[in-house]
C-alpha cells in the first residue's frame, strides 16, 4: 500500500482508496482530478495503518537534518518551468520547487507526505505527487515508469518510446479495433511472476494529456511484446532496425521517467531489470517521415514488420 498524506495529519475521516499501476494508494483526503482511479472509501484498518505510518514518519523526520542534494534542475510544473531540488539520505527523500519544500518521502514505507499549502485541490501539488514522487516510490517497489505510449496491435502490444516531440502520442492515438491505445505518455512497466513476463499497466494518471486522464475500458495490464524507439530525426522513408541487447538496455534506462532521481540501490535494481527486458523483448528503432497523412500506412507497415519478426 502507498500512502499520501497532507499537513493535517490527524484527520483521516475523508480518506479515500485509489489504484495506480496495480497498487492500492490511500489519499488522506479526496483528489477530484483522480476520480477515475478511485476505488472506495478507505477501511478502518487501512486508515489505522496509514495514520500510524505517518506518525512514525513525523516522529523521525523532526529529528533529521536536510538530506544532501541528489538532483537539481528545471522541470515544468503547472504553467511554467520551476527549479526542482531532490534530496535523499538513508531514511528520507524530499522534493523542493523554487526552494520551497513540497513533500517528504519515506521510501521504506511507501509514504509521500505533502507539505505545500493547497492540498490535492492544487494542481501543481497533484502533478508533483503523481509525477516524480509517485514514480520514485513505484521504482522502489520495482515498477518503472517509461516515457512511452503503448498500443495493442494485431502483432501484439507495442510500447513506443522516444524524446518529446518524436511522435509517440500521435502514433499511438486510437485508430480502430486493430490499433487500441493502452496508455499515453506514462507507461508503468513491471515484471509479472505469474506469467513470467513484462507487463504494462493502464492504471496511471496522466494529467497533462486530456485523452489520458481516465483509464480506458480495457484490461488493467497487458504483456509487452515489443518496444519501438522512435528516431527523433525525421526520415524520408520508413525503416526499421533491431537494436542489440546493449542498445536496447540503454534505451530502456534512458526513457525511464525520474531515473536521474534514483539512488544507487534503485539504480542497480533498475539496471538489472533493463538487462532482463533487453533479453526478453525485441527493441526496434523506427525511422519515419513526419507526415500525418501517412499515419495509416505507417501503422500498417509497423504491424507487418513486427508480425514478420514474430514469425521468425
Q: How many individual helices?
A: 6
Shape: elongated
SSE pattern: EEEEHEEEEEHEEHEEEEEEHHEH
Q: What's the story with the biggest beta sheet?
A: 9 strands, mixed
- By secondary-structure content and strand pairing, the structural class works out as alpha+beta
Terminal CA distance: 42 Å
**Range of helix content:** 25-40%
- The protein's oligomeric status is single chain
Spatial strand arrangement across the major sheet: 4-2-3-1-9-8-7-6-5
Give the low-confidence spans: none
Strand content bin: 25-35%
Q: Find the count of extended strands (DSSP E, 2+ residues).
A: 18
Tell me the radius of gyration: 20 Å
The overall pLDDT average reads 89
Report on the structure:
This protein is α+β, with helices and mostly antiparallel strands and 312 residues long. It has 6 helices and 18 strands. Strand 10 and strand 11 form a beta hairpin. The longest helix has 18 residues.
Topology record:
Layout: E1 2-5, E2 16-20, E3 23-27, E4 38-41, H1 44-61, E5 69-77, E6 80-88, E7 93-97, E8 100-106, E9 111-114, H2 123-140, E10 143-153, E11 156-161, H3 168-172, E12 179-183, E13 186-192, E14 197-201, E15 221-223, E16 226-230, E17 239-242, H4 245-254, H5 264-280, E18 283-287, H6 295-311
Parallel strand pairs: 1-3, 1-9, 11-16, 16-18
Antiparallel strand pairs: 2-3, 2-4, 5-6, 6-7, 7-8, 8-9, 10-11, 10-12, 10-13, 13-14, 14-15, 17-18
Helix pairs in contact: 4-5
